[in-house]
């Protein structure tokens, strides 16, 4: 009996750590499964929230589109009798080439267009001392010449004007200034009426 007791105790001591390991592995797998279930629930909640947010954003987008369409139907397009471009630059060849390009663009849109230039440029002269501090009699004169060119378009709508001006302004060369002036056609206001004829 005494000889068999150590074998049983040794068997128990050998198997006990294995049982602990198995129990620990079971706990770890149970925790992992629990966390996976929690992650699945969180993903489902997030998907539901994303669907709700997408539906709300679609509703807002649809409402804005309808508002824009209603506003576009109410607002009429502007009419312009004359659209005039004033070009300024220091190189007359560049101005002439760009004015020709602007006229060609207007003809491509089937718009009445013409161009002209001023014969004399505008001169700006600046006289300064040749030296910094002394020799007042010795001076140097600098001159800046500004050339002008004009391009005129007739009878345009607002959308055509925006498209044409954007196309022209995108191709504006360096050293050239552009000024746009418009003459818009508008209806008479309600408070202005035709004169009443006095019949005697």
Describe the fold and architecture.
The structure is a single chain. The longest helix is centred in the N-terminal third of the chain and has 70 residues, at 5-74. The relative contact order is 0.14. Strands 1, 2, 3, 4 and 5 form a 5-stranded antiparallel sheet that branches. This protein has 3 helices and 5 strands; from the N terminus they run H-E-H-E-E-E-H-E. With 200 residues, it is an alpha+beta fold.
Give me some keywords for this one.
flat; five-stranded antiparallel beta sheet; 27% strand; disordered N terminus; 200 residues; 3 helices; alpha+beta
N-end to C-end Cα span:
151 Å
- Rounded mean pLDDT is 78
Helix content percent band: 40-55%
How would a textbook summarize the main sheet?
A: 5 strands, antiparallel
**N-to-C series of helices and strands:** HEHEEEHE
Radius of gyration: 43 Å
Helix/strand/pairing category: alpha+beta
Secondary structure tally, helices: 3
Kindly state the number of beta strands: 5
What is the general shape?
Answer: flat
Overview in brief:
By secondary structure, this protein is of the alpha+beta class. It has helices at residues 5-74, 92-108, 158-170; strands spanning 79-89, 112-117, 122-129, 139-157, 176-185.
């Amino acid at each position: 009996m005494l000889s068999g007791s150590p074998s049983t105790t040794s068997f128990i001591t050998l198997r006990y750590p294995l049982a602990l390991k198995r129990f620990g592995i079971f706990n770890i797998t149970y925790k992992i499964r629990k966390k996976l279930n929690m992650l699945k629930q969180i993903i489902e909640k997030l998907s539901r929230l994303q669907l709700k947010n997408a539906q709300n954003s679609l509703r807002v987008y649809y409402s804005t589109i309808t508002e824009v369409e209603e506003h576009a139907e109410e607002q009429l397009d502007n009419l312009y009798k004359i659209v005039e471009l004033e070009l300024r630059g220091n190189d007359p060849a560049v101005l002439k080439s760009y004015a020709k390009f602007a006229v060609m663009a207007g003809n491509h849109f089937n718009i009445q267009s013409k161009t002209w230039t001023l014969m004399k440029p505008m001169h700006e002269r600046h006289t300064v001392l040749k030296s910094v501090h002394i020799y007042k009699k010795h001076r140097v004169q600098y001159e800046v010449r500004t050339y002008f060119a004009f391009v005129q378009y007739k009878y345009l709508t607002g959308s055509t004007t925006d498209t044409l001006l954007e196309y022209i302004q995108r191709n504006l060369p360096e050293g050239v200034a552009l000024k746009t002036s418009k003459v818009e056609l508008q209806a008479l206001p309600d408070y202005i009426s035709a004169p009443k004829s006095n019949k005697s």
